[in-house]
Automatic annotation (TrEMBL):
InterPro entries in the record: Acyl_CoA_acyltransferase (IPR016181), Bact_Acetyltransf (IPR050832), GNAT_dom (IPR000182)
Keyword set, alphabetical order: Acyltransferase, Transferase
Origin: domain of life: Bacteria
One GO MF term attached to the UniProt entry: acyltransferase activity, transferring groups other than amino-acyl groups
Start and end residues of each N-acetyltransferase domain: 4-164
Keyword Ribosomal protein: no
Pfam families: Acetyltransf_1
Keyword hit for Oxidoreductase: no
Protein name as catalogued: N-acetyltransferase domain-containing protein
PROSITE patterns registered for this protein in UniProt: GNAT
Length: 164
C-alpha cells in the first residue's frame, strides 16, 4: 500500500475526518485504550480547524480517507505560552484498515519536514498519561518526554524531538 503526501483538508473532508475520529474513538474504547473519549471532538470544531488550515489528509483510491494530521505552530492549551518556535502535531489518525503500512510514520515524517521548512527547531506532541502504547510509539520515533500537563479530568505527557 502506498500513499500520496498529505494535502490540506477542505470543507469536503470535514465529515470524513470526523467519522475517522469517531471510529478510532470507538475502536480505542473497545480495546481499553484511553486517549480520546468517545464524542470528544465535535464536527463543528473539526470544521473550524479545517477552515483555519490546520488539518491535512491522505486518501486512498479504494479506502477513501486513510490518514490525517493536524499541524499547529503554537499550542497554548497543552504547552502554555511557550515562545519556543516549534511545530505541534494533534489529530494523528490512521484508519485501522490502513494500519501497519507505515502511514503513521510517514505522517510524522511529513510534519517534521514542514517544521524544518519553517525553520523551527522542535517537533512537539502529547499523549494521555494513560496511553503507554502511544507514548512508546512516539519514543520509538525519537520523541522524549519533557513534561506533563494536568487538566481537570486527564493528564498528558508532553513529548518533543529536535528537528536539527
Amino acid at each position: 500500500m502506498s500513499f500520496e503526501p498529505p494535502r490540506p483538508a477542505t470543507a469536503a473532508d470535514v465529515d470524513d475526518i470526523h467519522a475517522l475520529r469517531r471510529s478510532l474513538e470507538d475502536w480505542m474504547a473497545a480495546h481499553g485504550t484511553v486517549q480520546w473519549p468517545q464524542g470528544s471532538l465535535p464536527r463543528e470544531r473539526v470544521a473550524t480547524q479545517v477552515d483555519a488550515g490546520e488539518w491535512h489528509v491522505v486518501r486512498d483510491d479504494e479506502l477513501g480517507l486513510v490518514g490525517t494530521v493536524r499541524l499547529l505552530w503554537t499550542d497554548p492549551d497543552f504547552w502554555g505560552d511557550d515562545p519556543t518556535p516549534a511545530v505541534y502535531v494533534h489529530g494523528l489518525m490512521v484508519d485501522r484498515r490502513a494500519a501497519g503500512h507505515g502511514l503513521g510514520t510517514a505522517l510524522l515524517d511529513w510534519a517534521a519536514a514542514r517544521g524544518r521548512d519553517a525553520g523551527v527547531d522542535l517537533f512537539r506532541l502529547d499523549c494521555r498519561t494513560t496511553n503507554p502504547v502511544l507514548r512508546t510509539y512516539y519514543e520509538g520515533y525519537g520523541f522524549r518526554a519533557v513534561g506533563q500537563r494536568d487538566f481537570a479530568d486527564f493528564s498528558c505527557t508532553l513529548l518533543e524531538r529536535s528537528l536539527r
